[in-house]
Design goal:
By secondary structure, this protein is mostly helical. It has helices spanning 3-17, 29-36, 40-52, 71-74, 76-82, 90-109, 114-127, 133-149, 154-177, 181-197, 201-222; strands spanning 56-59, 63-66. Strands 1-2 form a two-stranded antiparallel sheet. Strand 1 (56-59) and strand 2 form a beta hairpin. It is elongated and about 65 Å long. It starts with a helix and ends with a helix. InterPro entries: GntR_C, TF_FadR/GntR_C, Tscrpt_reg_HTH_GntR, WH-like_DNA-bd_sf, WH_DNA-bd_sf. It comes from Streptomyces neyagawaensis. Keywords: DNA-binding, Transcription, Transcription regulation. Residues 1-69 form the HTH gntR-type domain.
C-alpha cells in the first residue's frame, strides 16, 4: 500500500472508530504523524486528499477539522464525477434515476406535509398550460427535488440531486423535438401530485416510474 493510502486509511479508521468525531480538530501535524507512525509529508498528502472529498476541512491558520460528514456534503464528490459523463452514458443515468426516484416518491407520499403539497401545486399552477421548454425543465427539476426532499432520506436526496445534471440536457432536447412532450410532462406531474395528495404510495411510485421511463423510451428511440 502506498504511504499516502496508508495515511488515508489510518485517518479514516480514527473517524470510523469515533476517535475523531464530526467537528473535531485534528491533533497537531507533528503529534498525529508520530501517533500514527507516519511521515509528516505522507500525512500532509492524506489530509489534502481527504479535504478534496469533504472529509476534512483545512482552515488556514486555525488547523484541520473533521467536517460535519453530512451526506449532502460528502456526495458533492459524486456531482463532480457525474459532470464528466459522456453522452452515451445518459441512458445509464436515467436507468439509475428510474430505480431511485420512484422509491423516493413513494416514501414522500407517506411523509409530505399539506404545506409542501400546496407549494408543489402552486409551482404547477404558476407554470400554466403552455410553458416554454426552458420553464418546464426548470420547474421539473424543482418539482422532483421538492418531492425527494420530502422523502426524509438525506442520502437519497443527495444522490438524486447529483444525478440530475446529465439528464437536464436530455429533457430540454425532448421538449424541443417531441411534439407532445410538454403536455405529457404536465399531465404526469399532476398525476404524481394527485397520488401524493391521496397518500397513495404505490400510485405515486407508478406515476414517477412512468414519467422517467417515458424520457428514457424517447431517448432510446432517438439515438
Amino acid at each position: 500500500m502506498a504511504v499516502t493510502d496508508e495515511a488515508i486509511e489510518k485517518i479514516k479508521d480514527m473517524i470510523v472508530s469515533g476517535a475523531l468525531r464530526p467537528g473535531d480538530r485534528l491533533p497537531k501535524e507533528s503529534e498525529l504523524a508520530a501517533d500514527l507512525g507516519l511521515s509528516r509529508n505522507s500525512l500532509r498528502e492524506a489530509v489534502r486528499a481527504l479535504s478534496l472529498i469533504r472529509i476534512l476541512d483545512v482552515r488556514q491558520g486555525d488547523g484541520t477539522y473533521v467536517t460535519s460528514l453530512d451526506p449532502q456534503l460528502l456526495l458533492e464528490a459524486l456531482s463532480f464525477v457525474v459532470d464528466f459523463h459522456r453522452d452515451d452514458t445518459v441512458l445509464e443515468f436515467l436507468a439509475v434515476r428510474r430505480i431511485l426516484e420512484p422509491a423516493a416518491t413513494a416514501m414522500a407520499a407517506l411523509r409530505i406535509s399539506e404545506q409542501q403539497l400546496d407549494a408543489l401545486g402552486a409551482q404547477l399552477d404558476k407554470l400554466g398550460d403552455d410553458p416554454s421548454v426552458e420553464e418546464l425543465v426548470a420547474c421539473d427539476l424543482e418539482f422532483h427535488k421538492g418531492i425527494v426532499q420530502s422523502s426524509g432520506n438525506s442520502v437519497l436526496c443527495s444522490l438524486l440531486d447529483g444525478l440530475s445534471g446529465p439528464t437536464t440536457r436530455v429533457r430540454v432536447w425532448r421538449g424541443l423535438t417531441q411534439e407532445d412532450a410538454v403536455s405529457r410532462t404536465l399531465h404526469e406531474h399532476r398525476a404524481i401530485l394527485a397520488a401524493l395528495r391521496d397518500r397513495d404510495a404505490e400510485a405515486a411510485r407508478s406515476w414517477a416510474t412512468v414519467h422517467i421511463a417515458s424520457i428514457e423510451q424517447w431517448l432510446r428511440s432517438s439515438l
